[in-house]
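(Protein data)
===
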Amino acid sequence: MYPVSATSRDDGKKRQSPAFSRDVQIPPLGLAGTLSHPARARALIIFAHGSGSSRLSPRNIQVAEALNRRGMATLLFDLLLPEEEGERRNVFDIKLLARRLAQAVRWADDEPDVAALPLGLFGASTGAAAALVAAGALGDRVGAVVSRGGRPDLAGDLLAHVKAPTLLIVGGADFGVIELNQWALQRLEGEKAIRIVPGATHLFPEPGALDSVIELAADWFEQHLVGKNHHPAQADASQ
């Protein structure tokens, strides 16, 4: 376990408090991951990266570090084994990726430092579809979902099973993907919203674009997760 810098909020003031990160392996395959949590974490956010990416995605790491500063623990992990990544069909196998995400949730539920925390999922690109399918399978265990530049449309008919409050964040210049997110939004059954970041393209590389994503995501998770002190019963996540 190694310390990283984090900031907690108290009565509107920011104070430095220790956060810790440790390398983990998600069973049953031993998928590599990094669990980071500040002292007195108020929620856990598990990330699902997009196609061609990994737990080392610089954008997801930036989002995760910002959430740590807002008092939320984060888990970034590889959805595929190294030998699986070469098979393109695995990268777009949404049900496979969702099962891996559900396995990560079950693992977290056995970890004493994060087991009791309300849970959110953050998905990017194809990982957004995996997060939504997993949320539908896990039921009340998932308290909120955020998609960054995602392809929620790839969840298809399974979107109707998602009850967790869901926020879709899309770049204003991500033409085509905006329409796919609007299509998916109409098929979600629970609380939902879409936010467009003006001028941003798919990966949000423009100055200030990812900062906007961070603020939107953090506010959504704080609204729907932070302050909850119960651990909902898990639904059957097998699919």
